[in-house]
Design brief:
The complex is a heterodimer of chains A (250) and B (348).
Chain A lengths: L1 H8 L10 E4 L2 E4 L8 E4 L2 E4 L5 H10 L41 H10 L7 H8 L12 H11 L28 E2 L25 H7 L6 H11 L10 E2 L3 E3 L2
Parallel strand pairs in A: 5-6
Antiparallel strand pairs in A: 1-4, 2-3, 4-7
Chain B lengths: L1 H22 L1 H12 L3 E3 L19 E16 L2 E8 L8 E4 L3 E8 L10 E2 L9 H4 L6 E7 L4 E6 L5 H6 L3 E7 L9 E10 L9 E3 L3 H5 L5 E4 L12 E4 L4 E9 L4 E6 L3 E5 L6 E5 L1 E4 L3 E7 L5 E7 L2 H6 L3 E7 L12 H5 L1
Parallel strand pairs in B: 1-2, 2-5, 3-11, 4-9, 10-14, 13-21
Antiparallel strand pairs in B: 2-3, 5-7, 6-8, 8-9, 10-12, 14-19, 15-18, 15-20, 16-17, 16-19, 20-21
The chains are: A alpha+beta (250), B alpha/beta (348).
GO molecular function, one term (chain A): formylglycine-generating oxidase activity
Protein name (chain A): Formylglycine-generating enzyme family protein
InterPro entries (chain A): CTDL_fold, Sulfatase_Mod_Factor_Kinase, SUMF_dom, SUMF_sf
């Protein structure tokens, strides 16, 4: 809140004043069990809100190489930021709405500009397991149903602002119910732990393989995240896909 | 941190893929050359209950199939809406018709307005995943894969993206007919009907926009069991039509995800039932069972005018959950076959 007030007064002065909140880490029962049912998650800091159109505009103004039309097609396809009016004008989208239609490469570069990086899948999943009062709310059917509700609504042309839903227990907003988010290791989510596979890689988008490789079958919302990420290449961009960044613990 | 954990697996996957690709390069080359010589045509897909025209070709072709995945809000029963996930905007998805031996080049496009990724698994494909691995696409993306239709029959296709039961429960299924090389006997009327089960928090006809209910799906407790994705898709002005004496053929499938159909037409006897969508038929059948992800082809001849009623003969589904359709038959009365008037009884 304090940061928001400062930003209001000194619009240009708070370029890199994004809020990062500490997350102590712990043991995560993950939907993608790689080496056992749980994984340790070390302490880290996470951006409290997804990167917005205004923030990403400042980034491309400072780093023209990442403007649409200038970014190499190897790193960003034709749909990169093409919902913006121009390369440096995010209209008709709102300044505080999350930026979307950014490639993984562009998102990574943005995070680097904040001295940060994209979260790993487990860092994202760890933070996203929490609700306002609990660090792990995933067994609560009502909470799951609330999240699932977003997936059942059609895409909207103009996304609402970030931060409109209540923050979770760490002070992180919008991990659900607003956008999909890039993670650093999205292209590693194809794994299976089915011991019968004998080294043959079955990929999770096929229904049978998915049931073998996913650890949390009831958590439909998370499975859909994984399915979306598995469908992407690094240069792709999607209208409902944005990102946030993480930093090492202080 | 977890990136490091992923990497060894990733490398192994890449290596495996490379080795497999290298090993099959020669064989693939020969196959690709053969496919290159084929005449190319684009398949005419049809929305249910219509069926693509029979294939008159006597030789193989390369058939281009263009399908989209679309998420649409539509009435599931008058007064109640549902967000369907579809192939081509309809439930079931557009029907595909090819000939045994054809090489099918399937282009799948996920509309940019979609919320979630989709893919397609066709049961007519001989190969792991039925096309699903090659076609997993985020909103706004497209993908292409090619397969040879080796086996004749009527096959279900469906989305196989996790969570797969949800994608199917939302309506992501359809059928592809692979005609045998010898072709199929001509008939007067062909229709395309699929049964599916739907899960909402509200009861049948509760009103408003009903979301998908995950728990009811897991419990296999359907709120709706429907033909062609709506309680009125085959009734009223949408009723199927035929004339007395027509040879009628129904391509009937079960999308599921959970409920098998007990398909029956009230007032008709199936002359032929191509059980499970295969080549052999049974004769003189009243009711046939169709499992989720399965199909059947039934043929019959309406003998007198009036309404024939398509039902799932587990009849609570027909009269309480929507699994009902009408075939309106026109033509001359044949009292020697069926006397409509109760007058004959009154005279005694």
């Amino acid at each position: 809140m304090k940061t928001a007030a400062v930003c209001f007064a000194f619009v240009l002065g708070c370029l890199h004043a994004a809020d990062y909140v500490p997350i102590a880490g712990g043991t995560l029962r993950t939907a993608l069990p790689l080496d056992g049912e749980t994984v340790p998650v070390a302490a880290y800091q996470m951006r409290s809100k997804p990167v917005t159109n205004a923030e990403f505009l400042r980034f491309v103004v400072t780093n023209p190489a990442w403007q649409r039309g200038k970014a190499p097609t190897l790193y960003a396809t034709a749909s990169y930021l093409n919902q913006w009016r121009s390369a440096t004008d995010f209209a008709p989208h709102a300044a505080n709405a999350p930026v979307t239609q950014v490639s993984w490469f562009a998102a990574s570069a943005y995070c680097a500009s904040e001295g940060a990086s994209l979260p790993s899948w487990t860092q994202w999943e760890f933070a996203a397991a929490a609700d306002a009062n609990r660090k792990d709310a995933r067994i609560d059917p009502a909470w799951r149903a609330q999240i699932l509700g977003w997936y059942e609504k059609p895409s909207v042309e103009r996304l609402p602002d970030v931060g409109l839903h209540p923050a979770n227990i760490y002070g992180v907003y919008d991990l659900h119910q607003l956008i999909w988010e890039w993670v650093d290791d999205f292209n590693g989510l194809f794994v299976t732990v089915d011991s019968r596979a004998q080294g043959e890689q079955k990929i999770l988008e096929t229904c049978g393989a998915a049931s073998l490789s996913l650890g949390d079958k009831e958590n439909y919302a998370v499975l859909m995240r994984i399915a979306l990420l598995a469908a992407l290449n690094g240069q792709d961009s999607v209208g409902s896909l944005g990102f946030r960044c993480v930093k090492p613990a202080q | 941190m977890s990136k490091l954990q992923f990497q060894p697996r990733l490398h192994r996957a890449v290596m495996t893929t490379l080795l497999v690709a290298m090993g099959s390069l020669g064989a693939m080359g020969a196959w690709a050359d053969a496919a290159a010589d084929l005449p190319v045509e684009t398949a005419e897909l049809t929305a249910p209950p219509m069926v693509p025209a029979p294939i008159v070709r006597k030789t193989p072709a390369k058939v281009i199939v263009n399908l989209t995945t679309e998420e649409v809000i539509r009435e599931i029963t008058p007064g109640t809406k549902y967000m369907f996930w579809t192939f081509g905007g309809t439930v079931p998805g557009k029907m595909i018709r090819v000939r045994q031996g054809d090489t099918v080049e399937l282009h799948l496009k996920n509309l940019p307005t979609s919320k979630v990724p989709h893919n397609i698994d066709l049961h007519a494909v001989s190969g792991p995943g039925g096309g699903a691995p090659q076609t997993l696409i985020a909103p706004g993306k497209d993908a292409t894969f090619t397969f040879k239709a080796l086996n004749p029959g009527l096959y279900v296709y469906h989305c196989a993206t996790a969570p797969v039961a949800m994608h199917i429960a939302n309506g992501m299924y359809g059928m592809i007919l692979v005609e045998p090389e010898a072709g199929m006997a001509p008939v007067d009327k062909e229709y395309y009907v699929m049964q599916g089960d739907f899960y909402t928090p509200g009861a049948f006809g509760a009103g408003g926009l009903q979301p998908f209910d995950m728990q009811r799906s897991i419990d296999e407790n359907a709120s709706y069991i429907l033909f062609n994705g709506a309680s009125n898709s085959l009734t009223g002005k949408n009723a199927l039509t035929a004339n007395v004496g027509d040879k009628v053929r129904l391509y009937f499938g079960s999308g599921g995800p959970n409920v098998a159909s007990n398909f029956h037409v009230i007032g008709a006897i199936f002359d032929k039932v191509y059980t499970e969508g295969g080549l052999k038929y049974q004769e003189q059948v009243q009711t046939t069972t169709v499992p989720p992800g399965g199909s059947t082809i039934v043929e019959f001849v309406p003998k007198v005018p009036g309404n024939l009623t398509l039902v799932d003969h587990a009849l609570s589904r027909a009269f309480h959950k929507g699994a009902i359709g009408i075939m309106s038959v026109s033509g001359e009365e044949h009292p020697e076959i069926y006397s409509k008037a109760a007058a004959a009884k009154a005279e005694h």
